[in-house]
Amino acid sequence: MAGARTRARVVIVTNPRSGGGKPARYGLVQRAEDIGAQVWMTSADEDAASLARNAVQQGAQVLGVAGGDGTVSAVAAVAADAGRSLVVVPAGTRNHFARDLGLDVRDPAQALGALVDGEPARVDLGVLGPRVFVNNVSFGMYADALLEPGYREDKKRAFAAVAPDYLKGKQWVEACVDTPWGTVEFPQVVLISNNPYHLATPRWLGRRFALSTGMLGGIVLKRPTETPPDLLRHLRSELRRHKRGLGPAGEGAVLWSASGITLHGDVRHLDAGIDGEAVTLPLPVMCGIRPGALRVLLPKDRPGIPPERVPGRPGALRAGGNG
Questions:
Q1: Does position 183 have pLDDT exceeding 80, yes or no?
Q2: Which of 52, 146, 189, 239 would bridge with 78, disulfide CB 3.0–4.6 Å?
Q3: For residues 274 and 124, what is the distance between their CA atoms, to the nearest angstrom?
Q4: What separation in angstroms does the CA of 93 have from each of 21, 22, 50, 136, 198?
């Protein structure tokens, strides 16, 4: 990228706190400005979505986002609604969406190459009412951990605080989930993802090799009738029973794909996590998907794409498409 500059007007919305200060550690501001992009920082007064909307109003032709998945989803929603392309810079802690786009999450600055000679691709967005999610919506243990004070600073402690009641079968999601094989009442875990996760190969467990199937992925871990074993071990064993990642209701897990997934029940609200951000949602919760809603620009070199063929893997993300 030495000496190369973008020919479009680009604004990159950056969360300086993401990833424990990754934008500063990797010199992302200077490197982006060297290419000709403007960098706007989030603050207590201006969040990612408002900055992105202001950038569009001021004529930005391309939006960029440097931050974690919550920041990415906020800017992605604006980009999709405004018909702008999005460049994702993996500057968060986990960077699930960037990883599944094939980006090099170990070197966030490499993603800036998309501003010079990026390849366009269309990807889906998950929706929950007016909200957009690029990764998933979760209910149960993970959502409860997000609500623990100090979660960002000490995630292990937060999980340790909420896990015991789930592991003992004393805590569950106060809702019912509709699946193709009937309704599951009061499950322990519900995970609804923007495109299904790959579950057949241990090495690639939890990856999404396609973000344009037009389908949500659903995973429900049912509440055991007896004292359960370790929750994560229980989930892993159930996934092994569903080698292709899909299967009817059994004693443990239900896995399926659908264009819409609904949770309902007698309580008024549920705690949830949307792309790693804690929220409270009114019931019923209805998740859907917007096929091809987001146009992304990707660098030509994407080392995050697996080099070998993965068994059971759907079609990989490809550049081009309708747009």
A1: yes
A2: 52
A3: 16
A4: 10, 9, 23, 16, 21
